[in-house]
Write a structure and sequence with these properties.
There is one protein chain. The protein has a 5-stranded parallel β-sheet with strand order 3-2-1-4-5, with helices on both faces. Helix 2 runs antiparallel to helix 6. About 45% of the residues lie in helices and about 20% in strands. The N and C termini lie far apart (about 55 Å). Bound molecules: adenosine-5'-diphosphate. The site of adenosine-5'-diphosphate (ADP) has 17 residues, from helix 1, strand 4 and helix 5.
Length: about 170
Amino acid sequence: MKAIYPGSFDPVTSGHVDIIQRAAKVFDEVVVALAVNLEKNPFFTIDERLAMLRDACSHLDNVRVDFFGGLLVDYVENQGAKVVIKGLRAVSDFEFELQMALTNKRLKDSVETLFMMTSAEYSFLSSSLVKELAAFGASLAGLVPKAVEDRFQAKMQQRRQEAIDL
Ligand code: ADP
């Protein structure tokens, strides 16, 4: 069975990778789907986020990275899938995820949302936390895949250069 794991992945973190790896053991195929219209003001471009995701998933044979615009349930149906995977960290995630799952169920009854609990070591981790840490120059080792660490450094360097050029 195929499962879709949607998100904004701005950027992908070790918490996302953990969910992807675990889902890949349960499902025959996992499609990690970047929702292009979720974040209005993303830090990384769509191409950068896709490149980091592809790198982070390259060791997983049954995982594919893709992107979509519009409604998730339409994308899921077009992919010939019936299952959406979501990760749950804390109670704070629950209310939003419940609302989304019920909305999607109402839009398309054939699509089921399945939740996977975060691993304890990543329960505090989010893309926004990672961006904040990076802005203050803190180490991201272990919190994000290596490709993301490198991409942050390149981006910070580029921003410093732009500030100098102004
Ligand atoms: P974030 O919530 O970090 O901004 P996304 O919108 O890209 O990230 O999230 C995509 C999915 O990954 C959501 O289902 C979200 O709950 C889940 N997720 C994000 N971080 C973690 C984590 N540390 N552990 C488990 N699931 C996570």
